[in-house]
Write a structure and sequence with these properties.
The complex is a heterodimer of chains A (176) and B (199). Chain A has 2 helices and 15 strands. With 176 residues, chain A is mainly β. In chain A, the strands form 3 sheets. Chain A has a 5-stranded antiparallel β-sheet, with no helix packed on it. Chain A has a 5-stranded antiparallel β-sheet with strand order 11-15-14-12-13, with no helix packed on it. A 4-stranded mixed β-sheet of chain A has the order 2-3-4-5. In chain A, β4 and β5 form a beta hairpin. Helix content of chain B is 9%, strand content 37%. Chain B is built from 3 helices and 16 strands. Chain B is globular. Classes of the chains: A mainly beta (176), B mainly beta (199).
Chain lengths: 176, 199
């Protein structure tokens, strides 16, 4: 008789250890692991590890997305990079926290998109901790702003340079 | 035959979870060695029905009187706080990397609300678990009694919430979902977190 101290298929592991678990063919849909970096239970969807505050989406086949990109949904239910135009802000759905299945050119694939909480998002400029995070004019990225308003998605929790991943407190986007 | 213990720490109220975090019911040999709570262990919370998983921090406490960890769940985020940590208070970002402090009594802090503490730790300069979405319980202090459905912002005491209006305003961060535990401008309310203010 064996005893399993944690109720997850693969116990508690870091993100690096989870990524080294094996090829997707070795994992079974519904397998679970506790990620000590994200501090979330993650479930293998058959394509990628999806944590509890995320939803899996299919990325538009012409779009090159990566971790930390800000995404919007389209009328077909696919996701695309979101920019700061009013029309795109209305379709904002969250930030990519896991991605897989892109083609050889890095296009398309599937992504787990977080809708709230502490996430690593990709800065579109130099951003300062203590400011508000706002969707950037560069699609898929965020900028900071000293005053909250339309297009704000939360708070900048960590200073970062243009193009880097840094922590934001992701909240509901402000449309007004 | 294998045995999987789904919820290592069983069913507990918020108060009992707090005792677990503080090591109140266990000997110092467990707590000092940091051996009681381990990454990923689950507890079923019966105060706000949910399950939460324990997460240790990378910085462990040398004195070992508490764990510098938090029980976490899908609706929680963990941040560092230099102010004394209390349960059922709202917290705001204060600059610095991933740092929050207890909310003040001004619009400026209310606009930067990040979440509401639930089960948390007894000390300051520590990590704290904040509920960032969904339903939370927050202490209330305002001359105006709360009304279900009304929007909330800062109250008259640090970390406690108060009533703004029936419509969202620049510093509102939630609305009242149940005010049964509030009376005479005190007590607590259950609220639906919506940290997006209306500029």
């Amino acid at each position: 008789m064996s005893y399993k101290p944690l109720p997850y298929t693969y116990g508690a592991k870091t993100t690096a250890e989870i990524n080294a678990l094996g090829s997707p063919l070795q994992l079974r849909r519904g397998d679970t692991v506790f990620n000590t970096d994200s501090q979330m239970v993650e479930i293998w969807s058959g394509r990628l590890w999806v944590d509890e505050r995320s939803v899996e989406f299919k990325i538009k086949s012409t779009v090159e997305a990566s971790l930390g990109n800000l995404m919007k949904t389209d009328t077909a239910g696919l996701i695309d990079l979101c920019d700061n135009s009013a029309a795109e802000r209305q379709q904002f759905c969250g930030v990519i926290v896991a991605i897989s299945g892109q083609d050889g050119s890095g296009l398309g694939g599937y992504a787990a998109v977080a809708h709230a909480g502490k996430v690593k998002a990709r800065a579109g400029a130099s951003v300062q901790s203590g400011q508000w995070a706002i969707v950037d004019s560069t699609a898929g990225r965020y900028n900071d702003t000293t005053l909250p308003g339309a297009g704000c998605i939360g708070l900048v929790m960590e200073s970062a340079s243009d193009g880097n991943l840094a922590t934001i407190a992701l909240q509901t986007i402000e449309l007004a | 035959m294998s045995h999987t213990n789904f919820a290592h720490w069983g069913k507990r109220s918020a108060e009992n979870i707090q005792r677990l975090i503080a090591g109140t019911d266990y000997g110092s040999s467990y707590t000092n060695a940091n051996e009681l709570l381990q990454d990923g262990q689950l507890v079923i919370d019966i105060t706000i029905p949910q399950y939460m998983a324990w997460i240790n921090n990378t910085n462990t406490d040398g004195s070992g009187n508490f764990y510098e960890g938090c029980f976490m769940g899908p609706e929680y985020s963990q941040y560092f706080s230099s102010s004394t940590n209390f349960a059922n208070k709202w917290y705001c970002h204060v600059g610095g990397n991933e740092q929050v402090n207890i909310g003040g009594t001004t619009s400026a802090t209310s606009e930067k609300m990040c979440g509401i503490s639930y089960n948390t730790l007894p000390g300051s300069n520590d990590f704290i678990q904040l509920k960032v979405c969904g339903i939370a319980k927050c202490d209330y202090d305002d001359n105006t009694a709360s009304t279900n459905g009304y929007y909330l912002f800062y109250g008259d005491t640090d970390g406690k919430c108060g009533t703004d209006a029936s419509t969202p305003g620049p510093a509102t961060f939630a609305w009242v979902s149940n005010n049964i535990n509030q009376s005479s401008g005190g007590g607590s309310v259950f609220l639906k977190i919506n940290a997006t203010e209306t500029a």
